[in-house]
Specification:
Strand order of the largest sheet: 2-1-4-3-5-6-7
Largest sheet: 7 strands, mixed
CATH superfamily of the largest domain: P-loop containing nucleotide triphosphate hydrolases
Strand content: 5-15%
Distance between the termini: 72 Å
Helix content: 40-55%
CATH architecture of the largest domain: 3-Layer(aba) Sandwich
Mean pLDDT: 87
Number of domains: 5
Number of strands: 16
Number of helices: 35
Structural class: alpha/beta
Shape: globular
Low-confidence stretches: 125-131, 781-791
Length: 836
């Protein structure tokens, strides 16, 4: 793969043809061809600066734009199809077209250059962006009508759209609703959901209305969409090309992996991880080289354990490592645990998610995974040890590569955020057993805090892992990395501010100066989260005052303990909420903060502002007002229907730390869970009913029901409450008893709740939730006032205990039919309660 390289002087030159395992991080351009493109033949030689004649071509402008934008994003290399491929070489052209989807997928950044969207359509008279003006131009762009741009829209982890003048219009995520309306492509596909989850006919339909210069290219441009390879035969015509494509698709479909339960957003390149940072090119250099060397050592240990205290940058390194391994063809699978997100907060779907990814990476493994699933369709519900043995270890052991041994790396981030200590230790043990594979070197890169269950797990496999502690790296190394990061980010903040400020109020070219950067570094070490948070705080456009924001951060100098460090990270942001406020006004702001931010940091999975408003009964106005000043610590989307997430788990830890109970921003975790559980029960009690989707057909299968109907009658906040009210009740440490809110809800709505779970495809979760409720029934002894004797609280709560006992038997006996046909829950209940 040839790339273009831009240096600090803005000069652009062609690189050598890189082998797969040596390709550096790069940006990639997506565009439509014009009449005067810069071609491969226009570039005189490798490593020679582009000649002046070439720069006079109209097509050079977008090459310059791509190089400059990549440089601003910290990337020195970029790829443009017009001049990085020698199209006169048929072998090279064929290889490039077959590799195109993979090249776009590997790119660190993809810039969609819309040559027919002009600045004049983006600006109003007063210079502010007007959606009413740019949307028509965006919708009509030729870019959306071309065949090749389909894969360029879907393949990359990130796509950003720019006008002809290089002005950012938006990203694929921020514009996903518009793009969906223009193209008809489902939002899930735009969010990088695996394409194998979409039917062949659906994917074919995405090409409708798109054209290519040569008819055959309409078929060839779909190769990546279907993960198909076939010989290109220009001249065969469009019809023949599609015949061959269909034949390949039909053959491949026979080998597709059967559906196994997958944890949504667990992969490093998932929609949830899209905007999270990776390492700056000048940071973590030695550590990344060490990790690369470990992965490439055929005699190395199976596991590389990178540990560090909260905020030291473990997840940023994980994303960077996963990206590098992807570019080198070594990444087999990834799983990013995240406490507070149900599928990513435990190990229930851990093995099946990794197995599905590994099977897609290693085709030989596919048939053996299929065999395991065919032999035991319930394998996904078995113990982790059995899942690992049958879905990963045995299939990988069947792979045959002759004399060649392949390395596959699994990246597991934040293992400490898995909610079961025994699962954590078992996962470590299981991956240590992979050393005996013959044709595959399976390597596991794990990051975590150095907490006790993790340490015990690694103690049990002593000698079979390699470890590095981030917080124990030499202080000069940490200082250098944080200094490089701060220097880069603060320079971007300065340039952004100066582009908006009056000429006589510009920040100096050396702002904030090396002395200030050194001070910030000392405040940060060893916490990278401090550097990231304060940069977001200083850059906050709600204030548009980098100097003032920086001064507020510097007021918190002097902290040395971990608690002090987190305080100097988060308190400058939080204090802005109450600055200048006293008495009732201050109390109101603090109450709103706890009501809004408390649920956000404690929810089982992220909710949008709109769903949060419905769930806890807070107005959108209050949520907006509270979140307005918190963009430095919370990922707050521009749309009310997109989820809100904390940037880092340490924000939750800081707010709920019992040591800070007297602090005015402290959140009582137990009380907040109790309040949320009661809100959930209240919402469900007023919303659920029999046949909530008005099916009027007791035998109608769930797969036949339109998902839009389900989402209409079970909006996001109701779906959340159905799945997680028991979770919040359990976390509140509340006990339940006869005649309380929980019992009254179950008496009235138990079957309605099961119907809703079935409609959502989550009926099986009721088994675990009923079991949890049984453990929450108040037990113990009380003094009886009537007979002065001890009475069991279990007996006192006999009605609830009996109900839950019967409920448990009911869901265990009827779960198959309930999960398949939602309204069968009512028929099953009649049979169950009358058969004895």
């Amino acid at each position: 793969m040839r790339l273009l390289e831009r240096n600090a002087a803005g000069e652009i030159r062609l690189t050598k043809d890189f082998l797969d395992d040596e390709i550096p991080l790069y940006a990639i351009l997506s565009h439509t061809w014009g009449s005067e493109e810069v071609l491969f033949k226009d570039l005189t030689d490798v490593f020679t600066v582009l000649p002046d004649d070439t720069k006079k071509k109209l097509g050079y402008e977008k090459i310059r734009f791509c190089g400059d934008q990549a440089w601003r994003d910290g990337l020195h290399y970029f790829w443009v199809d017009t001049c990085c491929i020698d199209k006169t070489n048929n072998v090279e052209l064929q290889e490039a077209i077959i590799s195109m989807f993979r090249w776009y997928k590997r790119a660190a950044k993809c810039y969609a250059y819309l040559a027919d969207v002009l600045k004049s359509s983006l600006d109003t008279d007063d210079g502010e962006t007007s959606q009413s003006l740019w949307k028509p131009a965006f919708r009509k762009s030729r870019w959306f009508t071309r065949g090749w741009t389909l894969q360029e829209l879907i393949a990359p982890a990130s796509v950003e759209f720019f006008s002809k003048e290089g002005i950012l219009v938006g990203s694929r995520s921020s514009l996903e609703k518009n793009i969906h309306e223009i193209t008809g492509i489902p939002v899930d596909a735009l969010r990088c959901r695996p394409l194998s989850r979409f039917s062949v006919s659906d994917r074919m339909a995405w090409m409708e209305g798109r054209n290519t210069t040569r008819g055959e290219d309409r078929a060839y441009s779909l190769l990546g969409i279907f993960s198909i390879q076939m010989t290109l035969r220009y001249g065969e015509g469009e019809e023949e090309a599609f015949k061959r494509l269909w034949a390949k698709i039909n053959k491949a479909s026979k080998m597709e992996l059967p559906q196994v339960p997958i944890a949504e957003n667990a992969g490093f390149d998932s929609r949830a991880e899209e905007h999270n940072a990776q390492c700056h090119p000048d940071t973590r250099v030695d550590l990344l080289h060490e990790i690369d060397a470990w992965a490439g050592d055929p005699n190395g240990q199976c596991i590389f354990w990178l540990n560090g205290v909260a905020g030291t940058g473990k997840s940023t390194i994980s994303r960077t490592v996963a990206t590098r391994f992807t570019q080198h063809g070594l990444l087999g699978a990834s799983f990013f645990f995240k406490r507070g997100e149900r599928d990513r907060g435990n190990a229930t779907l851990f093995i099946t998610t990794l197995a599905a990814q590994l099977a897609l990476k290693e085709p030989q493994m596919l048939e053996f995974v299929r065999g395991a699933l065919h032999s035991d369709p319930t394998i996904a519900t078995k113990a982790l040890r059995e899942q690992f043995e049958k879905l990963i270890l045995q299939p990988l052991n069947q792979v045959r590569r002759g004399q060649e041994t392949q390395t596959l790396v699994v990246v597991v981030d934040a293992l400490d955020e898995c909610d079961n200590d025994d699962d954590i230790k078992l996962i470590i043990y299981l991956f240590s057993q992979a050393h005996g594979l013959s044709s595959i070197h399976l390597r596991d890169f794990i990051t975590s805090r150095p907490e006790l269950p993790i340490r015990l797990g690694f103690r049990d496999i002593s000698g079979r892992y390699r470890d590095v502690a981030l917080h124990q790296l030499p202080e000069p190394v940490i200082e250098h990395d944080i200094s490089a990061y701060l220097g880069h980010e603060l320079a971007k903040i300065r340039d952004s501010y100066n582009s908006q400020a009056f000429d006589d109020h510009q920040l100096p070219a050396d702002w904030p100066g090396q002395d200030i950067i050194r001070t910030l570094v000392q405040m940060a070490v060893p916490l990278f989260i401090f550097a990231a948070t304060v940069c977001r705080f200083i850059a906050d456009e709600a204030w548009l005052d980098p100097e003032g924001q920086l001064a507020l951060v510097l007021d918190y100098q002097g902290g040395t303990s971990k608690l002090d460090k987190l305080g100097s990270t988060y308190l400058p942001v939080l204090e802005q909420l109450v600055v200048g406020k006293t008495g009732p006004a201050r109390s109101r702001v603090l109450n709103e903060f706890r009501e809004v931010v408390g649920p956000i940091v404690l929810l089982a999975e992220p909710l949008s502002a709109s769903s949060l408003s419905h769930l806890v009964g807070i107005s959108i106005t209050s949520i907006t007002r509270t979140l307005y000043r918190l963009h430095a610590v919370l990922d707050v989307p521009s749309r009310a229907d997109s989820p809100i997430r904390p940037f880092h788990l340490s924000f939750h830890d800081f707010l709920t730390d019992p040591m800070r109970e007297t602090d005015e921003f402290w959140i009582d975790e137990t009380k907040m869970h109790r309040d949320t559980a009661m809100s959930c029960i209240h919402r469900l009690g007023s919303h659920l009913k029999k046949d909530i989707c008005n099916l009027k057909q007791p035998g109608k299968a769930r797969v036949e029901i339109d998902m839009n109907d389900i989402d209409t009658h079970l909006p996001a906040h109701i779906q959340y409450t159905c799945r997680y009210w028991v979770f919040h009740l359990e976390q509140s440490k509340e006990r339940i008893r006869d005649e309380d809110q929980v019992y009254e809800f179950l008496k009235c709505h138990f079957l309605h709740w099961l119907e809703a779970l079935s409609l959502m495809g989550k009926a099986a979760e009721s088994i675990v939730m009923v079991n949890i409720l049984q453990t929450l029934v108040e037990v113990g002894t009380v003094q009886s006032s009537s007979a002065a004797r001890l009475t069991s609280l279990q007996d006192e709560n006999d009605k609830l205990s009996t109900f839950l006992y019967d409920a448990n038997r009911f869901v265990l006996n009827g779960i198959t039919s309930i999960d398949t046909v939602p309204l069968q829950v009512y028929c099953s209940a009649i049979i169950f309660f009358t058969r004895e």
